[in-house]
Amino acid sequence: MCGIYGHIKKNGEENSVLVCLEGLRQLEYRGYDSAGIAGIVAGNIVSYKAVGKVSHLDAIVQASPRELDIAIAHTRWATHGGVTTENAHPHFDQNLNVALVHNGIVENYLTLRTFLEKKGIQFSSDTDTEVITQLIAYYYQGDFVKSVRKALSYIEGSFAIACIHKDYPDTILAAVHARPLIIGICHKTGDVFLSSDTNAFMGRSLDIFYLHDDEIAAISRERTEVYNKKGRKLTKITERMALENQKISKEGFDHFLLKEIYEQPTTIRRTLTGRLDSNKELPIFEELTVTDDFLKGISQIKILACGSSYHAGYIAKHLFEAYAKILTHVEIASEARYTDFITTKETLVIAISQSGETADTIAAVQNAKRNGATTISICNVERSSLSRESDSTLLLHAGPEISVCSTKAFTSQLTLLSLFAIKLGYLKGLAKNKVKELLSELALLPSAIEKVLRLESQIQSNSEKYAGYSDFFFIGRKHMFATALESSLKLKEISYLNANGYPAGEMKHGHIALISKNFPTVAFCGNSETLDKLLSNLMEIKARGGPILAFAPLSAQEIETIADDTLYLPETPDWLAPIPYAVAGQLFAYHIAKIHGTDIDQPRNLAKSVTVE
Ligand code: F6R
Question: Can you give the CATH number for the domain in which 401 is found?
Answer without folding.
Answer: 3.40.50.10490
